[in-house]
Amino acid sequence: MSGIERTPQGQQQTDQEQPRASPGPIVSAALHPLESSISTYAQAAQLRLLAARERKAARRGMVLNEGLILARAQDHLERTGRLPTASCKAILSRYRDWDWIEVNNAGIYRLHGLPKGRTVARILESCAQLTEEKIRAAALDYRSRHGRLPTELSREPFPSGVLRDTWRNIHYAAQVGARGLTPGGSLSAILAPLRRITEEEILGAAARFRNERGRLPSGRLLEKVPELRNLSWRAIDGLARRGSCGLTPGRSLRTTLAPIRPNGLRRSLLGRIKKTPLDETGIVRAALEHLHTYGKVPTKSSREPLAGLPGESWSAIDEAGRKGHRGLVKGRTVTEIVSPVREEHRRRTLLTEEKILGDAREFFQEHRSLPKKCSAAPVPGSPFDSWKRIDTAGSFGLRGLERDRTLSKIQAPLRTELANARKRA
Q1: What is the Cα–Cα distance from 67 to 225, expressed in whole angstroms?
Q2: What's the whole-model pTM score?
Q3: 370 near 380, Cβ under 8 Å?
Q4: Which of 294, 296, 398, 405 is deepest in the core (most CB within 10 A)?
């Protein structure tokens, strides 16, 4: 019994002839998906082979037409957003027995009625044709999303329907005259009309600027103008001087804006305009009105308008005085002309500690706190003065005050008085 075992069927087997042990349940469970996947792959490959044979038999005797191929390419473009290529495995719509690889092979080997060399790329070449209007429309869409026009270095693909089409390809096609474009051009030349700026557009933007600010823009202003391709006024002045973007060369922004200036005349056409003469009496009167209105004596850098002298500026008066033009004595600058106004202003604005304490008491009654040099509220007795100016005058000994008498030191007695009043209360 030790060397021979009897099977249930009555057969004898020796120890050497015993069958191999079967794998356990865990090993069988691990091998089952592998066996099923192998069988699935084999079945799929067999099905693909049978389908290819059936499609080849169905295509036997069929004749391809380039017009039908173009129509199917347009359907593919509408569904996927790009034109098919020779490596596209998609089935042609309404032609289930063809894919684009097989159509390309038919063109290579002159099969099914196609001439030799009529590959998918050659047949669909007409679909990839471009026009300058189409390129400009795509560039406008690009600018609406990015705020600038594209260049040949732009990485975003060109929306032509051709797979991996780029703006660099468009630039190259314009240079060599491919895809229906005129040779010798460039992407920049095609997009040049989109960069054009007319003087009417500049005048319209300047008129809107004047309605908002009360003055015309200058050629030094760095503020950007949305109506003019988001360029700054300084950039527009440079374009006008160089004659770029369709503008006449040699015309600055100031010359371009001459029609909407108060005199309505162009200096470039009429030459130098003779301005009205000036007299120091009128300038002093305007300086007094300026002091009364703005609380300060004007200087050559003051930007406020002159009362009684429309169209003038303090910088222009200063220049006329330096050069002795328009009836002024040479060397009489704005500082020298308005010096009487400044002296009168200084005499009237002398400060005393008693006056400052009185103003501080009125400030305390209104705000329940003593003023500081950083207080933004006006001085009760001097609406055009400020607590910071008073503190500065006391620090440096100006306007009749002793040196190093700051606002805090001047208010020390008032601070002690208020503290004693709180204790008594």
Answers
A1: 50
A2: 0.37
A3: no
A4: 405
